[in-house]
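Task: sequence design from structure.
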């Protein structure tokens, strides 16, 4: 997509995974680590978990020739690259920040960007070279995202304390139950099979937030992200995409 001023997300950054050997399969490397299928149609939203199934990093995976780009929160980019490097072992894959590229967003679909893989109502995203003319829309993006009830990033998703399925990953296309093994897969699959997702992250009006369950508050938006038991979520507060119905 051509460069459009007034659409850049300065709070987002790109990590590039690139093969250093033509025989190296970058997608196969990432496939064995993350929750979603990165060998199919991209972009997808996915996460890197602890072995217990709790979220360390969430990000959107984009194609990049024979490599991949991981769009994540800027404050987590270096830590994400370092974590992936630990898993690389002797594979010939370069892992580094791609500071020459930037993530862009508009609140409506179309115009050549890709629909947000979590929820079409989130709008469209794209990657473009960094420009001196870039103007940020981070506050507008956060407000739009939270009003749709979609948490993201370490502060909202728990920073290693919240299970991935409790982050609404199944509702927001953030997990594949057919792709095979990945870090944290066993517990994630067990929770799904046994219908044991007892808690959820939910965006609530600040005055209705439970201080004991609050992950983060945004007073300027009048919103907070709570980590609540499912039975403590009033249907009126649940977004339309959230399935809180008991299993059959």
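Answer:
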């Amino acid at each position: 997509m051509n460069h459009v001023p007034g659409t850049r997300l300065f709070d987002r950054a790109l990590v590039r995974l690139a093969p250093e050997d033509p025989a190296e399969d970058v997608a196969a490397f990432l496939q064995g680590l993350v929750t979603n299928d990165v060998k199919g149609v991209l972009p997808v939203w996915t996460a890197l978990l602890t072995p217990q199934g709790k979220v360390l990093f969430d990000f959107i995976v984009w194609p990049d020739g024979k490599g991949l780009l991981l769009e994540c929160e800027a404050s987590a980019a270096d830590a994400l690259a370092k974590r992936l490097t630990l898993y690389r072992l002797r594979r010939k894959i370069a892992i580094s920040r791609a500071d020459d590229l930037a993530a862009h967003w508009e609140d409506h679909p179309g115009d050549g960007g890709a629909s947000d893989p979590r929820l079409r109502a989130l709008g469209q995203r794209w990657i473009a070279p960094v420009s001196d003319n870039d103007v940020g829309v981070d506050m507008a993006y956060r407000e739009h995202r939270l009003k749709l009830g979609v948490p993201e990033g370490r502060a909202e998703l728990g920073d290693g304390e919240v299970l991935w399925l409790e982050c609404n990953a199944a509702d927001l296309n953030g997990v594949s139950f057919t792709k095979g093994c990945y870090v944290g897969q066993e517990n994630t699959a067990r929770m799904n099979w046994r219908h044991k997702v007892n808690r959820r992250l939910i965006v609530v009006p600040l005055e209705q937030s439970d201080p004991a369950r609050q992950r983060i508050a945004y007073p300027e938006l009048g919103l907070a992200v709570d980590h609540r038991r499912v039975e403590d979520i009033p249907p009126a507060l649940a977004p339309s995409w959230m399935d809180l119905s008991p299993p059959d």
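The mean pLDDT is 94.
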